[in-house]
């Protein structure tokens, strides 16, 4: 896969699903509030540490905002580049600064997310570490997910669908996408092609990473 999804390692099935959803979203008016094909307004992206949950969410956000006429997520248009850089006006990443995401913060996010997009196709809210939502914050988010604004998409990231990681009520209203642990070969390939490592170093780093892409990059030099 080329474009923004080239950053996602060893998740071909997930790439195909998210690209298909972004393509389906283009067939719908952003302000109609209807669901077309494989697109929906709330997603839960799960996977083990290092599998690329937040990367997948950000790539999907870019694909939804992508303005190219080709496959969504071209990686070259302004919408893609600003989304991946964290500067797109209609894409918000919620990264917990402490141990939890409080209800006050979530209410502020919900209020902003209810606005119409300013420059993009959608208002996209990426909630990294959604397992850190307090009960009050989860309930505040649930209310807007149950009655979503027509042009808003929520992308939640959590380790699993276990009730310890995500509220059952939230889980039931999201489309679930499960990432898997990347294979040694997939990690080695990205270290070789993307990071320019010699094959021997790349395969060693991948083999001792435990399927964690970030850990492999940190250990890439023996």
Give structural notes:
The chain has 222 residues and is α/β, with parallel strands linked by helices. It has helices at 12-26, 53-65, 78-85, 103-113, 135-146, 168-172, 184-193, 199-207, 213-218; strands spanning 42-46, 91-94, 123-127, 152-158, 175-178. The protein folds into two domains: 4-181, 3-Layer(aba) Sandwich (Rossmann fold); 182-221. Helix content is 40%, strand content 11%. Helix 5 links the parallel strand 3 and strand 4. The longest helix has 15 residues, at 12-26. The chain is globular and about 50 Å long. The model is unreliable at 28-37 (pLDDT under 50).
In short:
This is DNA polymerase III subunit delta. This protein has 222 residues and is an alpha/beta fold. The protein contains 9 helices and 5 strands.
């Amino acid at each position: 896969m080329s474009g923004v999804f080239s950053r996602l390692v060893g998740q071909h099935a997930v790439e195909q699903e998210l690209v298909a959803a972004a393509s389906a979203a283009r067939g719908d008016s952003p302000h109609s509030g209807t669901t077309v094909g494989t697109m929906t307004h709330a997603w839960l992206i799960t996977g083990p540490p290092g599998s690329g949950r937040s990367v997948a969410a950000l790539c999907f956000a870019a694909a939804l905002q992508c303005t190219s006429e080709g496959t969504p997520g071209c990686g070259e248009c302004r919408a893609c580049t600003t989304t991946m850089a964290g500067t797109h006006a209609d894409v918000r990443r919620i990264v917990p600064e402490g141990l939890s995401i409080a209800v006050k913060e979530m209410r502020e996010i919900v209020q902003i997310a209810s606005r119409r997009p300013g420059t993009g196709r959608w208002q996209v809210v990426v909630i990294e570490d959604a397992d850190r939502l307090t009960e009050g914050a989860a309930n505040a988010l649930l209310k807007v997910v149950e009655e979503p604004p027509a042009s808003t998409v929520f992308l939640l990231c959590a380790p699993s669908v276990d009730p310890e990681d995500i509220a059952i009520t939230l889980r039931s209203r999201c489309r679930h996408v499960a990432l898997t642990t990347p294979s040694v070969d997939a990690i080695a390939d990205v270290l070789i092609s993307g990071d320019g490592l010699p094959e021997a170093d790349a395969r060693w780093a991948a083999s001792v990473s435990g399927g964690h892409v970030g850990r492999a990059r940190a250990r890439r030099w023996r």
